Amino acid sequence: MDRCVQRLYLESHNQIKKCLTTAYHVAKTEQPFTQYASLLNLQTTNGVDVGPRYGSDQACRRSASADMLGRARQCILVLKDYKHLLFVALVQDSLHVLSCLSLKLQEDGVTLPSALHAFETALLSLTSMATSPAEFLEHFLEDTEDGQFHSVPLLNFSQESRDRTKKELLDKVHESLLRRFKDVETDEVLKAASNLADPREWPSDKQDLAHYGSDFLHTVTGHFAEVLDRNGCDRKKAKYSEWPAAKVLIKSLPPSQQARAWEDFLLDPERKKTFSNLLMVIEKTFVHIQVLSVE
Predict the structure, then answer these.
(1) What is the number of other CB atoms lying within 10 angstroms of the CB of residue 55?
(2) What is the rounded CA–CA span in Å between residue 226 and residue 231?
(3) Of 177, 179, 186, which is closest to residue 112 (Cα–Cα)?
(4) Of the spans 22-36, 40-54, 228-242, which averages the highest pLDDT?
(5) How far is Cα 290 from Cα 295, in angstroms, rounded to an integer?
(6) How far is it, in rounded angstroms, from Cα 18 to Cα 9?
(7) pLDDT at residue 21 above 60?
(8) Does residue 268 sit in helix, strand or coil?
(9) According to the model, what pLDDT value does residue 78 have?
(10) 77 vs 293: CA distance, rounded Å
């Protein structure tokens, strides 16, 4: 049955396409539309199946009346349904929140702290929407306050329907985000990589800085041990020699330069030579963070 319906649909689609192409030719060549029927008859004579329903403007009108009236009535019902219009406004607001999050995660050099901040912002925005309408919903509620839109009565208008629809949609979006990011805050390798990659998160106190990061470096080098060893990285030297020196050097920089310190190290031949083993680890760290943040 499904195949039969599909075949009938394709046949009808092809017939309509041929008729529209013919009508376009008549308009494009500035012929009178009375030529349309004779051109279709010519195609039929030449064995082209254009169907019986669109042979003239009157036939088009009759067919459209029969085929489209039910669809038009259904469209009118949908466009006047308060619940449907409310849903559209909520989707617009939700998509705006998700779009901001997506764009942040696609930024070059995104770090885990900035990704998590964008994630938390998105969750807070969705939570706020449950009690305080965002831009699109606010405009919609103002325009339909009395159950009408520009003097057109809306169907299924009720406070209960509004609250239920809003809760269902926002709960689903909220749950989807939590499920998508469920491992971000608990993944030990990702947390360690983030703390190494962003010097702005390091302690400013020299005593705290002296003890900072060794465990993170141990976690990351252990995770990438096979790759690092294959590339000739001296993991012990990176941890016990290069890491302490790099910490002191980077934290002595102005805060504005600390954010891009690792990138500057990778571009500086002298720094790259001095911290060759540590920078192998940092390169793997950046790749790990960016891949997991954007996926």
Answers:
(1) 17
(2) 9
(3) 186
(4) 228-242
(5) 8
(6) 14
(7) yes
(8) coil
(9) 81
(10) 43
Please report which confidence band the pLDDT of residue 160 belongs to, taking 50, 70 and 90 as the band edges: confident
Domain spans of the chain, in order of start: 2-69, 82-180, 188-294
Three-state secondary structure call for residue 18? helix
Q: What are the residues whose beta carbons fall under 8 Å from the beta carbon of 210, sequence distance 6 or more?
A: 244
Question: Of the candidates 209, 275, 268, 273, which has an alpha carbon nearest to the alpha carbon of residue 242?
Answer: 275
CB 144 within 8 A of CB 82: yes
Give the C-alpha distances (Å, rounded to integers) separating 289 from 26, 106, 282, 286, 293: 59, 12, 11, 5, 6
Three-point CA angle 192, 196, 199, nearest 5°: 140
Beta carbons of 185 and 281 less than 8 angstroms apart: no
Long-range contacts (CB closer than 8 Å, 24 or more residues apart) made by 152-156: 152/80, 153/80, 154/80, 154/81, 154/82, 154/85, 155/77, 155/80, 155/81, 155/82, 156/81, 156/82, 156/83
Which of 138-142, 155-159, 170-174, 219-223 has the least mean pLDDT?
Answer: 155-159
Amino acid of residue 172: K
Helix (H) or strand (E) holding 183: none
Cβ atoms within 10 Å, residue 259: 14
Quote the pLDDT of residue 287.
60
Residue 93 to residue 135: CA distance in whole angstroms: 7
Q: Is the pLDDT of residue 122 over 60?
A: yes
Q: Where are the beta strands (DSSP E) in the chain?
A: 148-149, 152-153
Question: In terms of pLDDT, which residue wins out, 153 or 62?
Answer: 153
**pLDDT surpasses 80 at 17:** no
